[in-house]
Design brief:
The complex is a heterodimer of chains A (345) and B (118). With 345 residues, chain A is mainly alpha-helical. Chain A has 18 helices and three strands. Chain A folds into two domains: 155 residues, no CATH class; 113 residues, Serine Threonine Protein Phosphatase 5, Tetratricopeptide repeat. Chain A has a three-stranded mixed β-sheet. The radius of gyration of chain A is 23 Å and the shape is globular. Chain B has a single domain, classed as 3-Layer(aba) Sandwich (Protein Transport Mog1p, Chain A), CATH 3.40.1000.10. Chain B has two helices and four strands. In chain B, strands 1-2-3-4 form a four-stranded antiparallel β-sheet, sandwiched between helices. The chains are: A mainly alpha (345), B alpha+beta (118).
Amino acid sequence: MEMDEAERGFRDSPQILHDERLKTYLSGVLCKTVGFDRCGAARIYVVKDHRFNASMAPNGLMIVNTGLLARMHSEAELSTVLGHEFGHFELRHSLNRFRALRKGTDWLAWLGMAGAATGNDMTATQNAIILGFFSYNREQEKDADFLGAAYVRSSPYPLRASAVWKRLAEEDDATREERKLRKLKRATPGATDTHPTGAQRFAYFSQLEAEIGAQNGDDGQEQFREETSRILPDIFAGLVKGNDFAGADYVIRSRGDALGWDGLLLHTRAELYRLRGNPRDLITARQFYEKAITLPGAPPESWRGIGLTAMRTGDTENGKVALKEYLAKAPTSNDSAAIKMLLEN
Amino acid sequence: MVSNIYRERDKKRNPMPKFDSGLLLPELADFFEKSFRAQNQLSDYTLIESSPATLNGAKGLRVRYRYTLPNDELTRLGEARLAVVKGKLYVANFYAPKLHYFDSHLPEANNIMDTLKF
């Protein structure tokens, strides 16, 4: 009941990316992974969150972050994550945890009472706590990993899980290097870690992937590229406008290397560099924008980027030409008045 | 010299974007967005409009935006004014829940921004 109530609030939340085509597509991948007889139990919601995460509640509510979609390279990779979350659901991990917590103290009821007593609306707090319930222990994560892999093995997809964990480790290394943080040793988990380490997952998935027949089937990379390129700005916005330059650049580059560079992806990388704005970044960004507009899919904002980076680096004349082009291509953009003012000065 | 809009409390884990006096007027909206996102750990921020405005008589930018906080479904709106004077960035920012509060207090916030002196 509490979960259904939470889901109602969730469904109308502005944090949900409302895109029916994407939802249908993701449901299709889940169905191919776990089987059409099972997948009807899940309802997928895409949440605007740049972090790599997905989860599934005991009533079938499945959450997929935009940050997860940004980091996947094929349907096969996506199927391992969706299969893993569905594994938690099938093994009733979240339900058991929910029950165990409800047995001792009725936190939700207490919170509601506290809200009534202080006159505050505690609904948001309740949602946060409900979602917080679904953290599992290391053994459960491992069980879900193996069940997820078993789903994929009996699906039309090849098993492609180890590459995901390898890239996550490389992304984390890139972030830590830039921020001068100590790199993590990932061989064995610490006492409080809730998940097996990336290295452990990489190791056992590599082993499963090497089994005979595990690599049979189409990984659905082309289809995945097409469906996610359509909504690229939505799934990359949080990464590009966040403050983890090295991590974001790693994610964009690895997608480009695996799926090819179109105008929109190259534009995304150009934005990342322009927004950091070190002197050398402006020159690099301009090169990316200029390349982007020669490729299919470049948005009008690429001309905005060329204009701004050109003017910042002293090439006012060409900068103004590009900004005029931007206004011609997107006359009703949300910053057209500000751009016009820049052009007048 | 301070070069962030918000204080950088944890340089290694949540670094704040640094202001560069070379930023062009429309780029102030980008800089504001990056700072506001980092300060509030936002994933959901939409620029509604950025347009010319004045702050203490100086040419500047008005930024209207919409956002939600993590783990909170309430839609919020904001309006900021930014201007660069003698290489220094001045920011006045007003934000509130969209439901009732933003509209009812916007005239007062605008009045403060219109008469701001520095």
